[in-house]
Design brief:
Helix content of chain A: over 70%
Oligomer: heterodimer
Distance between the termini of chain A: 16 Å
Strand content of chain B: 15-25%
Radius of gyration of chain B: 26 Å
Largest interface: A-B, 64 and 68 residues
Radius of gyration of chain A: 24 Å
Distance between the termini of chain B: 58 Å
Shape of chain B: globular
């Protein structure tokens, strides 16, 4: 197992280097500079700004300088927000985004697997069609529609929950978490249904049933363990995605998370911020894929065996 | 064994949903009315709170609460009223201003605000290393431009002179009738030298002095809290010279970028005032809840620039034909629908008493005749021309409407092209366009703010158009005019020439649409949307 983890960590280095390099040059090649403004920018001011952010240096020197800073964990100052560093901005939004993402993931896993398992127990009956149709709607319903819809009903009409904010008053976390979770829930439901269908037709399930075990023990103890492997594989990258924040949900609900930075940085040509958020997201993806793989190995004895004796 | 936790979670969620049912709870606005805490929808997250670095309107709303310049503006008339300076004298030739600072002007740490503070702050604001895009606000001051652009090294030669602790003399290069207006712009606000020096090099960006806890200002409020993308809180300052007349205890600024979110927050009683209204909601508010809606003229306009260097747009007759064939009334009634006014000149009407004569009229017949005279009868032979705008639904709708009007009236084909904001900015700045959308908001209430952008090689001209007489009128004659009447007469002549040559096609004058709770008092409408926070108070409806 340790060997497996080490191997995967080594693999991550070239992946991240490619991401950093490609992003670094792509943003600089994109038309429109960070200091383009509606009002004319005097040349001496432009020169001063470029010098301040090292844009007056040759591209190669900028690149090497960036890599050096990156190794020290320094993403540099934001171009758009001159008083803030990119590190500060990312880490100021991360706790909120992580909390929201965690709720969304929990909702998605709990509701999604429940629906998926229920559907898989009686395939092609109403018990299957009903949750799966709901899941289909969930996949199709975009959050920019669902969010305002939920807000209108529960926030404005019923006045059960506040229409914006995060952590100011009890209840303001419910709708954003539900909105963010909807798509993931639907996806998890479909994945777990598929996984369960496959597992429940296996021989060892028949054996379990033959032993006279109650059906729920068969499903929960023997079925879920194998049936949820696709869900686990999905949950890793999904959580990484959730941790990068959701522009739409954060904007609709006025949540001070990370998601808005991603989109705004690109519009603002905030080079360091684009780099910072991209690298951060890449690290998350790599890390959570690794965690998902570890979980999959732990759940699946066949894989465990494979990594104990690495193939020649 | 595994189902139990799932049940618990579901149950907990259900409980949370029911328990937080809170109909009838006091809203944030009602609470604010009681506590004199204003909840202000402030658009975007402020870039910074350093008055010599920022350029935006959300920043403006916060900075004017935290700091104060030599003068303020009366929000009803926009005429200058005393700020840090309790009085001032202007020499007969309009070149020398002597300001007398009030004795009780204080920084929020208790230090007195002195003439040296202004002199040092203005020196700082002119350092190129700061990247101050508003340095040009200082250029009416003698030698300020030369100093800011590095042609002059000695700051002592700039027309800023400290006469004593409480007296400051400013010498101008030319008479500048709007100079007092500029002093109320945040780019000319003083900053607290010891604080700036404590947190790093005052001439460099990226200092921590503007953080809550570090910030020292001289305005009616002090910075209490600044949470990224969440809130900025300012509280009443006990050291402010006019603290007795400040009625609000605090202002909470919310960076709400999405107009629909903002409108929902307003409706749910979370905001006293919004920055805007979703365009499709204006009609609904007009009909169902007009007491909340405010539609006011704004010191801005919307126009199309012509690239006059292109062969098909080089002839003023073509440009005028394009201008005369647009039915602006239709546009403001059916496309923009937000109280905008059709524009037949460039400067918005009644800009500090100045209204330009209409430079043309809606006249499709006349437009066709002009186009024919320019060699394109019934649009024949007019080369394909592109209209550029930055990607946005509202710009697209307007462009489509105008494209159709040009097709219908002049029988010419204009194609539409949209670009991402930064790409569009570069295209326009580099003259890499044929016809391009533009907009302008006055930096100060004076026709000069709209007319000096079209002088030869002006940084914001970008049309390639040049007229020596226009330059003379705007740059030389108007500044030296002995009276406001004469000055406005020069401006009228200049604007008439501008409209005859038509390097820029005015479409409409802007409006400001926003929502206000009835409890908010002391915010009279004005062209700049300028709030004087010390006059604002909240009065709950009984």
């Amino acid at each position: 197992m340790l060997r497996f983890i080490l191997y995967r960590l080594l693999q991550a280095i070239p992946v991240l280097l490619v991401v950093v390099t490609a992003t670094f040059f792509l943003v600089r090649l994109a038309p429109g500079g960070p200091f383009s403004a509606e009002k004319a920018v005097p040349p001496e001011v432009l020169r001063a700004l470029e010098a301040r952010y090292h844009l007056d240096q040759p591209m190669s020197a900028q690149y090497l300088g960036y890599l050096r800073d990156l190794l020290h964990g320094d993403f540099g100052p934001s171009f758009r927000y001159p008083g803030r560093s990119v590190d500060e901005m990312i880490f100021s939004g991360l706790p909120t985004t992580a909390e929201l993402g965690l709720y969304a993931l929990l909702i998605a896993l709990v509701l999604g697997t429940t629906a998926g398992v229920i559907a898989a127990l009686r395939p092609n009956t109403t018990q299957d069609y009903l949750p799966m149709s709901a899941a289909m709607v969930g996949v199709c319903l975009p959050s920019f529609l669902l969010g305002p819809l939920l807000l209108l009903v529960f926030g404005v009409w019923l006045e059960w929950v506040p229409v914006s904010g995060w952590g100011n008053v009890p209840g303001d976390k419910i709708l954003p978490a539900l909105t963010l979770a909807s798509g993931y829930t639907a996806y998890v439901a479909r994945l777990s249904r598929g996984g369960m269908l496959e597992v429940m037709s296996q021989d060892y399930i028949r054996t379990a049933r033959a032993k006279g075990l109650p059906e729920w023990v068969v499903v929960v103890k023997h079925g879920l363990r194998g049936g949820l492997i696709p869900v686990v594989a999905f949950a890793g990258p999904a959580f990484a995605g959730l941790l990068s924040g959701s522009f739409v949900v954060e904007t609709i609900f006025q949540i001070p998370g990370l998601g808005r930075f991603y989109v705004q940085a690109a519009f603002n040509r905030d080079y360091t911020m684009i780099m910072g958020t991209t690298v951060f997201f890449a690290v998350l993806i790599v890390a959570f894929n690794l965690l998902a793989d570890i979980a999959a190995v732990w759940l699946n004895p066949r894989l465990r065996h494979q990594y104990r004796k690495p193939a020649a | 064994m595994r189902i139990a936790p799932i049940r618990h979670l579901l149950l907990a969620l259900l409980c949370a949903l029911t328990l937080t049912g809170c109909g009838g709870r006091e809203t944030r606005v009602e609470d604010g009315d009681r506590e004199q805490v204003l909840h202000w929808g402030n658009g975007t997250e402020p870039q910074e709170l350093d008055p010599h670095i920022v350029t935006g309107i959300p920043e403006h709303h916060i900075i004017i609460a935290l700091m104060e310049g030599l003068v303020l503006k009366d929000p009803a008339t926009l005429e200058p009223i005393p700020g840090v300076a309790e009085r001032w004298e202007i020499s007969a030739d309009g070149l020398v201003y002597t300001f007398h600072l009030r004795a009780n002007a204080r920084w929020s740490n208790g230090d007195p605000v002195t003439a040296q503070d202004f002199s040092w702050s203005w020196w700082r604001a002119l350092q190129p290393s700061l990247g101050n895009l508003y340095a040009y606000m200082y250029f009416p001051i003698k030698n300020a431009e030369a100093y800011a652009t590095g042609k002059l090294k000695d700051f002592a030669q700039v027309g800023i002179q400290v006469l004593g602790e409480r007296a400051l003399r400013v010498t101008l290069a030319n008479p500048t009738p709007y100079f007092l207006q500029l002093l109320d712009h945040y780019s000319m606000f003083p900053v607290h030298r010891p604080t700036l020096e404590k947190y790093g090099d005052p001439t460099q960006r990226g200092s921590d002095w503007t953080r809550a806890g570090n910030f020292v200002g001289n305005g009616p409020f002090v910075l209490k809290q600044w949470e990224l993308n969440k809130i900025v809180v300012v509280e009443k300052s006990p050291t402010y010279w006019d603290a007795a007349n400040v009625k609000l205890n605090a202002i909470n600024y919310y960076p709400v970028e999405n107009v629909s979110t903002e409108e929902r927050m307003f409706r749910a009683g979370q905001l006293h005032i919004t920055g805007s209204v979703p365009p499709d909601k204006i009609a609904v508010y007009r009909k169902d809840a007009p007491q909340f809606l405010r539609v006011e003229p704004y010191l801005g306009n919307y126009f199309y620039r012509f690239n006059t260097q292109l062969p098909q747009l080089a002839d003023p007759r073509v440009r005028r034909a394009l201008a005369m064939s647009i039915d602006r009334q239709q546009i403001v009634d059916h496309v923009t629908k937000g109280g905008q006014l059709p524009a037949y000149a460039f400067t918005p009407p009644d800009t500090l008493g100045y209204t330009a004569p209409p430079g043309f009229a809606y006249d499709p017949e006349g437009a066709r005749a002009l186009l024919a005279a320019a060699g394109f009868p019934d649009g024949a032979g007019f080369p394909p021309t592109e209209l550029l705008y930055n990607t946005s639904e509202s710009h697209r709708k307007l462009a489509v409407a105008i494209q159709q009007m040009w097709k219908r009236e002049l029988n010419i084909e204009i194609t539409l092209n949209n670009q991402d904001w930064k790409v569009y900015l570069d295209s326009v700045a580099n003259g890499n366009y044929q016809i391009a959308r533009g907009g302008w908001i006055g930096d100060y209430v004076d026709p000069n703010s709209f007319l000096d952008m079209w002088v030869t090689d002006g940084g914001n001209n970008r049309t390639g158009w040049s007229d020596p007489r226009y330059d003379e009128l705007v740059m030389r004659l108007a500044p030296a005019a002995p009276s406001r009447e004469q000055r406005y007469a020069w401006f009228r002549e200049a604007e008439t020439r501008l409209m005859e040559a038509m390097p820029v096609l005015p479409v409409f004058y802007s409006s400001r649409n926003y929502l206000v709770q009835p409890s908010l008092r002391g915010l009279p409408p004005n062209l700049l949307g300028y709030p004087l926070f010390k006059q604002i108070h909240l009065e709950a409806a009984h």
